């Protein structure tokens, strides 16, 4: 097993809700991320799934040190990244890069592709001497499957998939160790999604990258991930390998999510159980006591309201699950191939 | 310009090998030799192809030369006149006619360009630079800095323009004193700046606020770009458009404002000349010598139009989507 390169330890990110114009009064906290812990190993892909508003993107921003966590630690190779300043921060930035969700807004419309992909070299001047930058940019364009002659084009002259490739090339320019992909394919057509995912997979094999792959699409995550974490309302509710999560889910929320995945085979479909959750996701400003999923859970007991279930391996499970009554239930999920 | 639709097709086509995406190659905007061009080279290449740019640049050049060397355009002394000839219509000797004191209107229009152009261009540049700078600082930093700067701007915004200008000019250029023409021009320009920077500050601030949260700013921060770099390379280029449009309009309104102040006796004083002063003087004699009002007004409109056209063509050239 490879070493842990990124350790996330009980990270909490709360946003204050304020009232008043001049004298701001904090009247509450939106608990976007509330105690998430996991570790990323070198060269692996960790998928993070969850519905919108569960804190996935906030988590990615904390991992990128774009937001300071309210409490908790993010350690890259043993060093807490939120305390880094100046040089150390810059060095850390070289190692952790971001691919953003929307390729239409993540590229400055007034810069050419050459400038966009060359910008990392201009910021981190020590990576490439001035004379070699153009060649490097062209190599990157080729690496992500774009025509290296299109250096002088502008983002609007490309399609969504091509723009996402530009975004990926920019993230790879500094040869990072970790790439945080924040829903990198959710803004793309299905046919392009496959292309971009295959590209990400190819790049991982070639460059030995570790991915944190955030998405709300379970099949997309399964395609790429070695391990998967499921988030609900700011917390990780289940964490395990690809197979553990998809074949033997133990948390009721994961089970409900997986039961909603459409099954292409009509004969299997008839035997499939669909777990329908009732109600909406509670507000992260005022989450339920105890287990956060209890308001929508069919297994909820009194214990769930009183005691918060920890993300640990229990008697009837083989991987960590944050449910007092975690157990395996037969789910027909997407089977690859 | 190549058709972006071509790219979409290439990308959608399944199984296109990496590097094969350009099989449907169309003429690239610039020879695709792969030589990178800077943003400014692109803008210049685009500007060069616009007739509107050349026409407006030529007109502005003419006006600037007129302001600097009026004697190139006329050999007549604008201050000389004989009351015998007053209020004459256009003739062979006086192309635009003569004013109430028998002075040549053509010569006065030419000589009047200096005050109008110098005051309006300097005041506009100052307003845009000061207001734009404060707007960027206020919008990008936010928090209490934004609060403080915005309230200061509100104070200036609350001053009625004429009252404020009268106050400033009355203090520093009281009637009866005879400061040099340059000093009065500078004073007028400064008072225009002081009273109108809050508008450009607000325009810039709101543009910065809308751009600040954009994904590409987050991407630049994730790359480790310094705030200075983010503002210079990402924020300002994306905020310039509205500012350019505003500043070209401002030039026109400042030429008018200078005239108003002169008319009230706190700006330039006769015998100094400006288009604004001439238009004001001519109002009462519109039916006798329409040319007295018409010609300076025509010059003023042409100058404003030239600046507006220049601003418009630069704005279009700066926006890659319009290329």
Give a structural overview:
- The complex is a heterodimer of chains A (about 325) and B (about 325).
- Chain A is of the alpha/beta class and about 325 residues long.
- Chain A has eleven helices and ten strands.
- Chain A has two domains: about 220 residues, 3-Layer(aba) Sandwich (Rossmann fold); about 110 residues, no CATH class.
- In chain A, helix 4 crosses helix 5.
- Chains A and B meet through helix 2, helix 3, helix 4, helix 5 and helix 6 of A and helix 1, helix 8 and helix 9 of B.
What's the short version?
The complex is a heterodimer of chains A (337) and B (323). With 337 residues, chain A is of the alpha/beta class.
List key phrases describing it.
heterodimer; A: 337 residues; alpha/beta; Rossmann fold; 2 domains; 6-stranded mixed sheet; 4-stranded antiparallel sheet; 11 helices; 30% helix; globular; B: 323 residues; mainly alpha; MetI-like fold; 67% helix; 0% strand; disordered N terminus; P-loop_NTPase (chain A); ABC transporter ATP-binding protein (chain A)
Topology as H/E string of chain A?
EEEHEEHEHHHEHEHEEHHHH
CATH topology of the largest domain in chain A: Rossmann fold
| Weakly predicted, low-confidence segments of chain B | 1-34
Measure the end-to-end span of chain B: 8 Å
Number of strands of chain A: 10
InterPro entries (chain A): AAA+_ATPase (IPR003593), ABC_transp_ATP-bind (IPR050319), ABC_transporter-like_ATP-bd (IPR003439), ABC_transporter-like_CS (IPR017871), Oligopep_ABC_C (IPR013563), P-loop_NTPase (IPR027417)
GO molecular function, one term (chain A): ATP hydrolysis activity
Keywords (chain A): ATP-binding, Nucleotide-binding, Transport
Family (chain A): Belongs to the ABC transporter superfamily.
């Amino acid at each position: 097993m490879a070493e842990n390169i990124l350790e996330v330890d009980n990270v909490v990110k709360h946003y204050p809700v304020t009232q008043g114009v001049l004298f701001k009064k904090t009247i509450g906290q939106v608990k976007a991320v509330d105690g998430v812990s996991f570790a990323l190993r070198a060269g692996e892909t960790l998928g993070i799934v969850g519905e919108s508003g569960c804190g996935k993107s906030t988590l990615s921003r904390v991992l990128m040190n774009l937001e300071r966590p309210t409490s908790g630690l993010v350690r890259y190779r043993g060093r807490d990244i939120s305390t880094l300043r100046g040089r150390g921060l810059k060095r850390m930035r070289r190692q952790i890069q971001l691919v953003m969700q929307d390729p239409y807004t993540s590229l400055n419309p007034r810069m050419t592709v050459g400038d966009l992909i060359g910008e990392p070299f201009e910021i981190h001047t020590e990576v490439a001497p001035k004379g070699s930058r153009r060649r490097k940019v062209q190599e990157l364009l080729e690496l992500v499957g774009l025509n290296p002659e299109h250096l002088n084009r502008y983002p609007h002259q490309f399609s969504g998939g091509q723009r996402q490739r530009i975004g990926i090339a920019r993230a790879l320019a500094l040869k990072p160790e970790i790439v945080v992909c924040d829903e990198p394919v959710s803004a793309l057509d299905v046919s392009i999604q496959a292309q971009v995912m295959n590209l990400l997979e190819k790049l991982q094999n070639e460059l030995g990258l570790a991915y944190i792959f955030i998405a709300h699409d379970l099949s997309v995550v399964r395609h790429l991930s070695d391990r998967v974490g499921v988030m609900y309302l700011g917390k990780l509710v289940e964490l395990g390998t690809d197979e553990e999560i998809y074949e033997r889910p133990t948390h009721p929320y994961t089970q409900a999510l997986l039961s909603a995945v459409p099954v292409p085979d009509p004969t299997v479909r008839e035997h499939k159980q669909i777990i329908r959750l009732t109600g909406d996701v509670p507000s992260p400003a005022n989450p339920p006591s105890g287990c956060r999923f209890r308001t929508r859970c069919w297994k909820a007991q009194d214990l769930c309201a009183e005691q918060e279930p920890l993300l640990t391996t229990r008697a009837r499970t083989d991987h960590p699950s944050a449910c007092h009554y975690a157990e395996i239930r037969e789910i027909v999920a997407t089977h690859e191939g | 310009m190549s058709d972006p639709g071509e790219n979409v097709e290439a990308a959608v086509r399944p199984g296109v090998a990496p590097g094969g995406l350009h099989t449907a190659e169309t003429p690239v905007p610039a020879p695709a030799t792969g030589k990178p061009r800077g943003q400014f080279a692109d803008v210049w290449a685009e500007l060069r192809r616009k007739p509107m740019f050349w026409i407006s640049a030529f007109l502005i050049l003419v006006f600037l030369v007129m302001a600097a060397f009026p004697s190139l355009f006329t050999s007549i002394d604008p201050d000389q006149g004989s009351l015998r000839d007053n209020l004459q219509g256009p003739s062979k000797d006086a192309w635009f006619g003569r004013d109430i004191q028998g002075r040549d209107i053509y010569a006065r229009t030419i000589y009047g360009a200096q005050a109008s152009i110098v005051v309006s261009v300097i005041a506009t540049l100052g307003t845009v630079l000061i207001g734009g700078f404060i707007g960027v600082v206020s919008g990008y930093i936010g928090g209490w800095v934004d609060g403080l700067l915005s309230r200061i701007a509100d104070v200036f915004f609350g001053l009625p323009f004429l009252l404020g200008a009268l106050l400033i000019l009355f203090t520093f250029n009281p009637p009866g004193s005879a400061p040099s023409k340059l000093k009065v021009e500078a004073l007028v320009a400064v008072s225009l700046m002081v009273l109108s920077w809050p508008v450009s500050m607000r325009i810039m601030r709101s543009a910065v606020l809308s751009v600040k949260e954009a994904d590409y700013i987050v991407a630049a921060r994730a790359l480790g770009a310094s705030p200075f770099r983010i503002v210079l390379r990402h924020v300002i280029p994306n905020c310039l458009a509205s500012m350019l449009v505003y500043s070209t309009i401002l030039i026109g309104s400042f030429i008018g404002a200078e005239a108003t102040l002169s008319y009230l006796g706190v700006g330039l004083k006769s015998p100094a000349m400006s288009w604004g002063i001439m238009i004001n003087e001519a109002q009462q004699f519109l039916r006798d010598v329409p040319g007295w009002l018409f010609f300076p007004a025509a010059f003023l409109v042409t100058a404003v139009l030239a600046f507006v056209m220049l601003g418009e063509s630069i704005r279009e050239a700066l926006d890659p989507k319009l290329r």
